[in-house]
Specification:
Blueprint lengths: L2 H31 L5 H18 L3 H8 L9 H21 L5 H17 L6 H4 L1 H28 L6 H38 L10 H16 L1
Helix pairs in contact: 1-2, 1-4, 1-8, 1-9, 2-8, 2-9, 3-8, 4-5, 8-9
Length: 229
Amino acid sequence: MTPVLIIVIILALAFDFLNGVHDSSNVVATMISSRALSPRVALWVTAAANFFGPFIFGVAVANTIGHEIVAAEAINEEVLLAALISAIFWNILTWVLGFPSSSSHALIGGFIGAVVIDAGWQAIQLHGLEKIPIALFASPIVGSVVGDLLLKLILLFCWRASPKINGFFKRSQIVTALALALSHGTNDAQKTRGIITLALVTGGYLKVFAVPTWVILICAGMIALGTAI
């Protein structure tokens, strides 16, 4: 591998690690605040779920990153370097300042910005790009509506329950937090997988965009390590 390609892979793994560090608070917050688990145990359980998530649910998001957002001919190692450095910078800045921020959108934003500067707006594929703002704006709305409905149903079914039901709710936090950690590992590690696979295709080490197993393994390991730390 060329030195530039090795640097791209190292930066991608660094971003993946910081993604785990940056987003772990979101995943474990309910487990810790409800005292369902101690902070240390919560982090280790979440790290394990983050690791196994990418192996369970496939690589659909990585495929979107790989060949649905920008034209293949517009991607080169310099573009990937710029995208990763900008995303890492944003992650560190928002972490230090305590701002809730999406690592995924930071990476995609850096990727799109680098491609636009290098190849122009014509390199952006709008049919793939539209998935990103839809998810960005729909997720808090859907989450809020579903959360509100579920809370009302829970209150309706439990309004005459004894205080012992709090034990059930506390144990349930473990199940929901594990599900959240699995989905987080599945979704967020895929962005890094997509970038590394793009780098391998661009460098001529892969003929088609297909995520190798070793890429899945190291990306899952890095996001899990970031979460644990």
